[in-house]
Design the sequence.
């Protein structure tokens, strides 16, 4: 691992860590998600659904042993970057983005990852998952600290997402109806790879609603509850509803569809209550590292994206 005595985090270190995060996300399934699947396996009664869950666990073990991506479709790799307020990057944040784009291209070739990114009209494919606005890099900031957290997520980019503009009068019952409608369509039409962590964005503008819903699915661990007791209770209720519509893994009969349900909220327009639903892939592919200016790197699988500062409610 690279080391430095500078107070700036080297761009070369960011590139090196970015490649390693891509490798870990593609191959090593987080322990919280494995444990969630094992709990499902114990509760599932349908023989075929039990077979699928067991095959998932075995597939992950083989992928780790062979050091190969656990799924042939490695989705659309993306990054989430959380910066301590005092963090400095050698060359600035343009250098950080260049390093992560290079890391993506090298990881696509070396791991390998499937090159899924193409121009929407010409279908030009650079065979490296890098292009216009690809990979996505989202930012968040924390008071104090000179570190940078980099999280990579491999999420499918086709289906498993829905949005609806509800109104205040629809209330919680409206949220439940939309959630069930979405989950039924995902299962019946094969639009998602379940079981999965389901993220729900509630409120904000339409774009914010979609963003926080995807973050809720990808950046929180199994068992993590929203600090608002009412939202936490709704998370558990929706998880239970999702597992009692008669569908199990990959659309088979069963009761193993939602490994966990996470809700994130944003203040919305007074006249509306937008809601988005997102399912993560059935492998919950994420990996995170904290980079320090002395060259120290700490790897983990919990992004800790939703901090108290991130969820702050009003003027400080």
Sequence:
């Amino acid at each position: 691992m690279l080391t430095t005595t500078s107070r700036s985090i080297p761009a070369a270190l960011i590139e090196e860590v970015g490649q390693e995060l891509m490798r870990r996300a593609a191959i090593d399934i987080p322990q919280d998600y494995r444990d969630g699947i094992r709990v499902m396996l114990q509760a599932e009664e349908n023989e075929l659904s039990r077979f699928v869950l067991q095959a998932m666990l075995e597939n992950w073990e083989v992928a780790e042993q062979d050091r190969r991506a656990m799924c042939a479709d490695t989705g659309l790799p993306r990054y989430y970057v959380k910066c301590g307020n005092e963090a400095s990057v050698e060359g600035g944040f343009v250098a950080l983005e260049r390093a992560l784009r290079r890391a993506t291209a090298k990881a696509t070739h070396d791991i390998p990852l499937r090159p899924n990114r193409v121009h929407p009209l010409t279908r030009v494919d650079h065979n490296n998952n890098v292009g216009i606005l690809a990979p996505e890099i989202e930012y968040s900031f924390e008071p104090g600290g000179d570190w940078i957290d980099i999280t990579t997520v491999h999420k499918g980019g086709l289906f498993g997402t829905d949005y609806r503009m509800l109104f205040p009068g629809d209330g919680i019952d409206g949220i439940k109806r939309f959630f069930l409608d979405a989950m039924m369509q995902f299962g019946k039409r094969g639009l998602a790879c379940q079981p999965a962590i389901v993220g729900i964005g509630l409120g904000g503008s339409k774009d914010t609603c979609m963003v926080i819903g995807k973050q809720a699915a990808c950046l929180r661990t199994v068992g993590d509850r929203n600090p608002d007791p009412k939202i936490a209770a709704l998370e558990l209720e929706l998880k239970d509803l999702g597992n009692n519509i008669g569908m199990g893994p990959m659309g088979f009969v069963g009761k193993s569809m939602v490994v966990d349900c996470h809700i994130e909220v944003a203040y919305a327009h007074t006249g509306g209550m937008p809601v988005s639903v997102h399912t993560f892939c059935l492998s919950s592919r994420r990996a995170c590292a904290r980079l320090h200016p002395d060259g120290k790197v700490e790897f983990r699988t919990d992004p800790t994206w939703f901090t108290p500062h991130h969820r702050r409610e009003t003027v400080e």
Observations:
- The radius of gyration is 20 Å.
